[in-house]
Amino acid sequence: MMKKLETKLETKNFMSKNRFYKASMSETLGNRYNSPTKNIVNLYSRWSNGGSGILMTGNVMVDRNALGEPGNIVIEDERDITLLKNWAKVGTQNNNHLWMQINHPGKQSPKNLSKEPVAPSSIPVGGNLSNVFNHPRALKHDEILGIIKRFGNTAYIAKNAGFTGVQIHAAHGYLINQFLSPYHNKRNDAWGGSLENRMRFLMEVYHEIRRRTGEKFPIAVKLNSADFQRGGFTEEDSMKVLKAIDKAGIDLIEISGGNYENPVMFEGSNIRESTKKREAYFLDYADKARKLVNTPIVVTGGFRSAEGMEAAINSGSIDMVGIAKPLVINPDLPNQIINGTYITPDLPRITTNVKFIDKKLGSMLELSWYEAQFYLMAHGKNPNLKLNIWRALWISFKKNGIISFTKRR
Questions:
Q1: Please, which contacts does 142-148 make with residues 24 or more away whose CB atoms are closer than 8 Å?
Q2: Strand 165-170 relative to strand 137-138: parallel, antiparallel, unpaired?
Q3: What is the pLDDT of residue 208?
Q4: DSSP 401
Q5: How far is CA 91 from CA 42, 84, 85, 171, in A?
Q6: Which of 58, 234, 198, 29 lies closest to 120 in space, CA to CA?
Q7: Distances (CA, A) of 122 to 135, 184, 223, 253, 326
Q8: Which pLDDT belongs to residue 276?
Q9: pLDDT computed for residue 143 by the predictor
Q10: Are residues 289 and 253 in contact, defined by beta-carbon separation less than 8 angstroms?
Q11: How far apart are the C-alpha atoms of 387 and 11, rounded to whole Å?
């Protein structure tokens, strides 16, 4: 009997061959000019062969002067159109989709990349990462309009290159999420204050992309269920935004949560035990969202077993399962579930076995280890679950230099 995971998802603007959705992860495989490389092409060829219905790229930034981290790919014009076409071609070679995630970091641009980052309001990043980012400058009205046009332009180029959809990143504390949050957005003009005003930037980005790409081009959005931050973007706010983008005609909604001041999106952080048993960290939110919107919903974070993925789809709350880290250590995961050979993995514990170093470097160790797996696959090798963290750090250093050993998010 065919599992629900194997069935097609058909909508007015796209058809996915199955319900597997490779979620966005920042590959940092751009070159020093922030252009795409043959490595990113090779990596997505590997994932395309793995069987996912939709592959979502990592952050593609809309402005070379606004980077989230070194190695970000930036699309401002068609200077890299040949490589973009190659990327799109291999990423869709198995009757699957390749969608480009489009983003602007706002104030979440590290000191070594941005002397004066921009944001809705001049409010610094707080929490444990406060010393990583410079104090931001509030955007002027004309600058906001310019960034909206940048989103539309990047989407237009992605479509021309052969990408089969785009996603607007409106989560995780990046610029659009900053506009949505009353904690980060203290403006008293048309872009701040009421929720209607705070969501204006997101809605204008969507309408600009739709204007540039047409009515039939798939546009997704990644939205926080909440920021989990006092005075921030709440679940109630999020539900209202969901209804607005659903009404506007968005094609796919991916649910996540948190930001880098309160990183709930990093698996296992502040997650209830009852939620962990369901595997999907934001499935409770999806249960509520399903009653409000008709747009297909994806939840990313927590999925490990085939049984957990199938149960989530069968619940009717979501339409696709978003998978990230498991697809790094096993890029053939969808094919293996379909042919019955999949074994639920235990994600490796990343440690130097030196407590001081582990505490000092924190999540950067895990980030470097997974980035090293991208690097291996990009060079035609298989993921290496036994990869030594020191080897992973060396790979990161070769790729990004000394900045590898500084906090980037």
A1: 143/118, 144/191, 144/201, 147/62, 147/63, 147/104, 147/175, 148/201, 148/204, 148/205, 148/208
A2: unpaired
A3: 98
A4: G
A5: 9, 10, 10, 24
A6: 198
A7: 7, 8, 23, 30, 38
A8: 47
A9: 98
A10: yes
A11: 41
What tokens does 123 get? Answer: 């409010």
| CA–CA separation, 37 and 83 (whole Å) | 7
Query: Can you tell me the distance from the alpha carbon of 34 to that of 309, in angstroms, rounded to the nearest whole number?
Result: 35
Q: What is the CA radius of gyration of the chain?
A: 20
pLDDT number for residue 349? 87
Using CB atoms within 10 Å of the CB of residue 353, give its burial: 0 to 12 exposed, 13 to 18 middle, 19+ buried: exposed
List, run by run, the mean pLDDT of 10-residue segments along the chain (409 residues): 89 98 95 96 98 97 95 97 98 98 97 95 87 94 98 98 98 96 97 98 98 98 86 92 97 81 48 50 90 96 92 95 95 96 88 83 84 95 92 80 52
How far apart CA 200 and CA 194 sit, in angstroms, is: 10
Structure tokens at 128: 């444990």
Q: Which residue type occupies 115?
A: K
pLDDT at 363: 76
Tokens (6 digits) for 242: 């969901």
Handedness of CA 275, 47, 12, 222 (dihedral sign): positive
Q: Per the structure block, which two tokens stand in for 54?
A: 């939709």
- Asked whether 224 and 233 are in contact (CB, 8 A), the reply is yes
The reported pLDDT for the residue numbered 354 is: 86
| CA gap 176, 173 in Å, rounded | 8
